[in-house]
Write a structure and sequence with these properties.
By secondary structure, the protein is α/β, with parallel strands linked by helices. The protein contains 13 helices and 17 strands. The longest helix has 11 residues. The protein binds nicotinamide-adenine-dinucleotide and zinc ion. This is Alcohol dehydrogenase.
């Protein structure tokens, strides 16, 4: 088959690789119908994620059709169309049972850092992908849910909801500011309303992304490049600061923006993947009684979010802006990587 292979920082190629096969009775092999690119793939290609080995097939989001199942798979059969969770997990080990399946301990040499597709095991930017623990890591795709909506459930909708809204402890009436209106930031904005946020402020350098944000639930937009960005945010909160600030970029400057604009007693939920250390001025954070959270998505809310997508209760249609064939995957990366010029958000591939 063909797959997109990582060859170290800055280097990737769409090339021939051996087809994946069932290795354990709990595996399935899925023909990828639609995959996409995430900001995390760009971090990997920049060299920000050194745990990704050279030779790894990239990609952790996908919708596909099962072509082979292991002997003990019960929930799925050949021919089923499924959503692939970005992290496979056994759902029985101590970390899975304590709500952190992204740290699944079931062993295949991944030493307790889970089964992250396109990172610690081969991923979905390929014609075929092997999925460990298929029963708990694949989700039946309901009739009527298009691939362009389903693909958001592999990673970004659960990430935005779990790591932004739930870790940020959004409550009814809250003002939530989201720095970074890329797909992940937009997923936070699209799901903040589930817990009753009263105001959702989208903050980005790119005006086009702020405009997009308004179509998925942001009530206000602030340009991160404006000298008075913080005054604009404070003006929306009677001068107190936001209840929840969500970092969805992954650089020290935007983390700092979050701690700067949150009210005393508020929450900063870091979602971005950081390639460099962030300064933590505890002398200021301590006295502000802040709660700071961060984490890797667990995908434990995928099934719940899928129900809402099926009922058209989440604004998912704004996300996928471009579609490419597998043989155009390098063009897809170029388009996704230059969003300011191309206005790309999520690019569907397949
Ligand atoms: P993206 O690159 O598409 O979007 C980032 C956005 O940030 C862009 O709109 C960009 O214009 C904006 N931005 C850049 N610099 C800025 C600045 N100084 N101020 C304000 N805005 C700025 O990325 P994405 O796919 O939306 O992912 C966002 C982050 O979430 C990435 O770091 C990604 O790795 C991370 N992520 C984390 C998890 C997790 O499990 N925690 C899962 C998936 C993605
Ligand atoms: Zn587990």
């Amino acid at each position: 088959m063909k797959a997109l292979v990582y060859h170290g920082p800055g280097s990737k190629a769409w090339e021939d690789v051996p087809d994946p096969h069932i290795k354990a009775p709990t595996d399935a092999v899925v023909k990828v119908d639609t995959t996409t690119i995430c900001g995390t793939d760009l971090h990997i290609l920049k060299g920000d994620v050194p745990s990704v080995a050279e030779g790894r097939i990239l990609g952790h989001e996908g919708v596909g059709t099962i072509v082979e199942v292991g002997a003990s798979v019960q929930n799925h059969k050949v021919g089923d169309r499924v959503i692939i969770a970005c992290i496979s997990s056994c759902r029985v080990c101590v970390y899975c049972r304590s709500g952190n399946p992204s740290h699944c301990l079931a062993d295949e040499g991944t030493s307790g850092l889970g089964w992250i597709l396109g990172h610690l095991i081969d991923g979905t930017q390929a014609e075929l992908v092997r999925i460990p623990f298929a029963d708990s890591s694949l989700y039946a795709l309901p009739e009527g849910v298009p691939d362009e909506a389903a693909i958001l459930l592999s990673d970004i909708l659960p990430t935005g909801f779990e790591m932004g809204v739930q870790y940020g402890a959004v409550k009814p009436g809250d003002t939530v500011a989201v720095v970074g209106a890329g797909p992940v930031g937009l997923a936070v904005m699209a799901t903040a309303g589930l817990y009753g946020a009263a105001q959702v402020i989208a903050i980005d350098l790119d005006e086009n992304r702020i405009e997009k944000a308004r179509s998925v639930g942001a009530t206000h937009g602030v340009s991160a490049g404006a000298a008075d960005w913080k005054d604009q945010v404070l003006a929306l909160t009677d001068g107190y600061g936001v209840d929840v600030a969500v970092e969805a970029v992954g650089i020290p400057a935007t983390f700092r923006m979050c701690t700067d604009m949150v009210r005393p007693g508020g929450h900063v939920a870091n979602v971005g993947v950081h390639g460099h250390p962030v300064e933590l001025p505890l002398q200021d954070l301590w006295i502000a009684n802040l709660t700071i959270t961060t984490g890797l998505v667990n995908t434990t809310t995928l099934a719940m979010l899928l129900k809402l997508v099926k009922q058209e209760k989440l604004p998912v249609e704004a996300f996928v802006t471009h579609r490419f064939g597998f043989d155009q995957v390098l063009d897809a990366y170029a388009t996704f990587g230059d969003a300011a010029a191309t206005k790309a958000l999520k690019v569907a591939i397949g």
